[in-house]
What we know:
Elements: E1 6-11, H1 21-36, E2 40-42, E3 54-61, E4 64-71, E5 76-83, H2 88-107, H3 110-135, E6 139-141, H4 143-156
Parallel strand pairs: 1-3
Antiparallel strand pairs: 2-6, 3-4, 4-5
Amino acid sequence: MADPRIIDIQLDQRTILWRNADVEQERRIAIFDLLEDNHFAPQRDHDDGYAGPYKVLLRVEEGRLVIEINREDDRPLEAIILGLGRFRRPIRDYFAICDSYYQAISNASPQQIETVDMARRAIHNDAAEQLIERLEGKIAVDFDTARRLFTLICVLHIKG
């Protein structure tokens, strides 16, 4: 019976060079929310018909995102590799707007905070749509799963 969802997700710690408390909180929330509710369905058929659940490891190698997909019992299924060139600008924009958001929280009016937060959500939503498009034919994901995966991809790009 198909169970197209992620039950465990890890980030390659060798890829992450540095993160502050805000980033760590974003990572924890993204992972928690992702594991609570997600749709993740690799499109490749397996000889035995395996269709989930999945354990996933995300890492960056030579400028590419590697999504290692394993069975529930940790046996490898496949690795999806995506070029990250198209994500450089959304990642950079997302980091910039998050910095503005965290600064606004400490010294801006509620109206200003809301404006920055709306811009942050728009960048995040656009990047999620782009991720859905890049995964087309490889992995079917819903919008919320794509948003959370984008957050985790951003965490992998922090350079300190």
